[in-house]
């Protein structure tokens, strides 16, 4: 450009270039009818860019070069929608649509056939765009319908969104609403790139669109090529607000129909769905449904149904809204998409609790816009009920965001090689025996203490308050210890050294000392706590206590046959079965031995001490109250020991109380006992009575 050109000329030239480029964006993105080649478009763009480079004062906010903001945001601001963003009611069948039509006719007090605007229901996320004096000033996500997030810088990068409205006659304030989505092609390309970069692919185009719109860096958003179609409106000055206040009210009147309004939007350069159509009555809705359903898989973007809206806008005012949705619109959902593919194998996944879940390995197949290669089969009963065999062709279904599922076999395609799945007898993770839970469809690995799949949970349970009560060993630290390879099984905890602990991230010397001290202190425990800490399925605190009281020695419990176990209070066949299997696993025994060798011990439970029965213990059948601070173990420990001896430990002193055991700083309970003449025992005294001496 010659330097002699005057500034007004340059201003005019820049304006012309901006408008020409905006027109070509419109032709390409909104009309889907490009007028020039990509190279010619680039040429125009470069002309404008270089003009702006040499004369930055010519840059305007709505220049196509200004779509991508310079700086990433720190966070999104929230935006309160002046007109709330509603949702839609769903219809799942033609009968639902007939109901919808009948309700509308009733409310409008007419028997006339209703005219609707029908259009695809895009699977993306709702957005509201605010134009003030024709300029895009704000874009906000739907959020909860009342408050969304401001994503203006991101939305500006969407090429089909005009930064300035075209034509004339728009109201001062125009809020338009629509769906931001990602085309199937863009989605596939994006996922290819994600994989190449070693990143997790997006599950579906909707997640990809949502994730993209929530990017803080508009440059990334610009690279991802989002799309948008409008289907609604919010605030319109002179219409929704008072007409008197609006200077443009004379220039523009709300059209009479939704269809006309969308045409008006399009004339202003806004993208609307080219597949929208007027249809008449329930029969018209059905025809549109059939046509779109047939073309669904070949459409360039994912849709999850059809939205029908009463076309006549005057009727919207009469019909109004329910709490969440307009009465003049409905979304007819498509049934979940189904495809056929070979079932290559059924593999087992072991969960945190040891539950075995069969997973179908499928020949990869596209269903509902994503490629599926695994699907859950839930459990063996389901496989049996559906009669799914390895080598079958199976029907795979995916509904919306839901995890893909195997519906059943395609029996007409079953070959002679197809063979039933057999549940493994041993855990694929650790080799321990698999047991079936009685009356349940669940199969479980019995290597609870050893199995790598159950490791973290086993450790968390082991250290928990009612188990070994190792303070300072939270879930986070366990995770760290496990990742560092320092702790695999509970017995490894007792081998931890101070040096190993301070080697961990964010571990100060003081905390490391505390943890080591807590671990050492936990070596002295009680048998019920120890049994509970093993995490045997269905063995809770009470059962652990009953087992300890009955057997008194761990090895007696470990050797007990089923017939003996079922005689114990609270132990049914299921629990007994779990116990026998648990103690039959060599790996579990290794860990138990490891714990005992590390010095885990407990006071011996003396004499026959089944609760409520007479025995030799001075506390059998007695009511005992504990008070004050005990020095040897906690009050809870003392309670467990007393209960093991057949005592009943209560919280308050009464005439029925036989003994009060008072530790240091005992207060009112001691005084009450004194007053009632109830024997008061010191900690030393009661420990001597049960044959435990401390010193
Ligand atoms: S009309 C007042 N039309 O579906 C309600 N919504 O399930 C305005 N959606 O929140 C909604 N395509 O995000 C409408 N053609 C379409 C749509 C559509 C997708 C979304 C929208 C809405 C959700 C309700």
Structural summary, described in words:
- The termini are far apart.
- The protein has 25 helices and 24 strands.
- It has five domains: 3-66, Orthogonal Bundle (Helix Hairpins), CATH 1.10.287; 90-333, D-amino Acid Aminotransferase, Chain A, domain 1; 338-413, Nucleic acid-binding proteins (OB fold (Dihydrolipoamide Acetyltransferase, E2P)), CATH 2.40.50.140; 429-608, DNA polymerase, domain 1; 623-689, Rossmann fold.
- The radius of gyration is 36 Å and the shape is elongated.
- The longest helix has 24 residues, at 7-30.
- With 695 residues, the protein is an alpha+beta fold.
- The strands form seven sheets. It has a five-stranded mixed sheet.
- Mean pLDDT is 89; it is low at 239-250 and 608-614.
- It binds 2-(butylsulfanyl)adenosine (IVH).
- 2-(butylsulfanyl)adenosine binds next to strand 3, strand 8 and strand 11.
Strand order of the largest sheet: 2-11-10-3-9
Give the low-confidence spans.
Answer: 239-250, 608-614
The count of β-strands is 24
Helix content: 25-40%
| CATH superfamily grouping of the largest domain | DNA ligase/mRNA capping enzyme
Q: Helix segment count?
A: 25
Average pLDDT reading: 89
Number of domains: 5
What brief labels describe this structure?
5-stranded antiparallel β-sheet; D-amino Acid Aminotransferase, Chain A, domain 1; 36% helix; 5-stranded mixed β-sheet; elongated; Helix Hairpins; 5 domains; OB fold (Dihydrolipoamide Acetyltransferase, E2P); 695 residues; binds 2-(butylsulfanyl)adenosine; alpha+beta
């Amino acid at each position: 450009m010659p330097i002699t050109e005057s500034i007004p000329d340059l201003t005019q030239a820049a304006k012309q270039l901006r408008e020409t480029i905006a027109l070509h964006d419109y032709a390409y993105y909104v009309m889907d009818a490009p007028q020039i080649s990509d190279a010619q478009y680039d040429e125009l763009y470069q002309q404008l860019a270089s003009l702006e480079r040499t004369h930055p004062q010519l840059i305007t906010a709505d220049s196509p070069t200004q779509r991508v903001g310079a700086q990433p945001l720190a966070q999104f601001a929230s935006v309160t929608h002046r007109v709330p963003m509603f949702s839609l009611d769903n219809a799942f069948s033609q009968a639902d649509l007939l109901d919808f039509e009948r309700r509308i006719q009733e409310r409008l007090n007419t028997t006339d056939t209703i005219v609707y605007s029908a259009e695809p229901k895009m699977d993306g996320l709702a957005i509201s765009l605010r134009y003030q004096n024709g300029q895009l000033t704000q874009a906000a996500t739907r959020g909860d319908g009342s408050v969304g997030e401001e994503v203006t810088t991101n939305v500006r990068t969407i090429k089909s969104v005009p930064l300035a409205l075209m034509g004339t006659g728009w109201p001062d304030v125009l809020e338009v609403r629509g769906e931001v989505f990602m085309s199937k092609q863009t989605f596939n390309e994006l996922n290819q790139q994600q994989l190449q970069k070693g990143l997790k692919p997006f599950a579906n185009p909707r997640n990809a669109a949502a994730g993209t719109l929530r990017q803080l860096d508009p440059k990334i958003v610009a690279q991802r090529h989002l799309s948008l179609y409008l289907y609604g409106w919010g605030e319109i000055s002179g219409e929704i607000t008072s007409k008197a206040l609006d200077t443009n009210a004379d220039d523009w009147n709300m059209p009479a129909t939704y269809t006309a309004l969308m045409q008006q939007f399009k004339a202003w350069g806004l993208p609307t769905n080219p597949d929208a159509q007027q249809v008449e009555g329930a029969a018209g809705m059905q025809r549109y449904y059939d046509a779109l359903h047939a073309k669904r898989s070949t459409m360039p973007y994912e849709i999850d149904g059809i939205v029908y809206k009463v076309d006549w806008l005057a009727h919207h005012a009469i019909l109004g809204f329910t709490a969440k949705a307009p009465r003049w619109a409905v979304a007819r959902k498509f049934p979940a998409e189904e495809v056929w593919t070979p079932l290559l194998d059924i593999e087992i996944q072991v969960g945190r609790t040891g539950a075995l879940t069969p997973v179908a390995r499928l020949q990869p197949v596209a269903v509902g816009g994503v490629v599926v290669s695994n699907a859950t089969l839930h459990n063996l009963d389901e496989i049996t009920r559906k009669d799914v065999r390895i080598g079958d062709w199976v029907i795979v279904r995916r509904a919306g965001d839901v995890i893909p599922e195997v519906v059943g076999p395609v029996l007409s395609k079953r070959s002679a090689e197809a063979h039933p799945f057999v549940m493994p007898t041993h855990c694929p993770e650790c080799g321990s025996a698999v047991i079936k839970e009685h009356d349940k469809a669940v199969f479980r690995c019995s290597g609870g203490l050893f199995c790598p799949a159950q490791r973290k949970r086993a450790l968390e349970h082991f250290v928990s308050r009612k188990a070994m009560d190792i303070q300072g060993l939270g879930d986070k630290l366990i995770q760290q210890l496990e990742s560092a390879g320092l702790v695999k099984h509970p017995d490894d905890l007792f081998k931890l050294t101070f040096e190993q602990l301070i080697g961990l991230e964010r571990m100060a010397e003081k905390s490391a000392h505390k943890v080591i001290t807590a671990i050492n202190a936990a070596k002295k425990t009680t048998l019920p706590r120890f049994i509970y800490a093993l995490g045997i399925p269905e063995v809770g605190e009470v059962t652990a206590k009953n087992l300890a009281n009955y057997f008194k020695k761990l090895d007696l419990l470990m050797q007990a046959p089923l017939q003996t176990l079922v005689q114990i209070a609270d132990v049914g066949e299921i629990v007994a079965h779990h116990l026998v299997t648990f103690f039959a696993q060599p790996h579990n025994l290794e860990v138990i031995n490891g714990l005992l060798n590390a010095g885990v011990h407990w006071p011996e439970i003396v004499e026959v001490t089944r609760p409520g029965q007479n025995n030799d213990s001075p506390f059998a059948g007695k009511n005992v109250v504990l008070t004050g601070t005990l020095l040897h173990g906690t009050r809870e420990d003392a309670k467990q020991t007393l209960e093991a001896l057949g005592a009943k430990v209560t919280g308050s002193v009464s005439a029925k109380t036989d003994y009060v055991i008072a530790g240091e700083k005992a207060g009112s309970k001691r005084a009450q006992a004194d007053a009632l003449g109830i024997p008061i025992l010191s900690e030393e005294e009661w420990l001597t009575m049960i044959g435990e001496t401390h010193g």
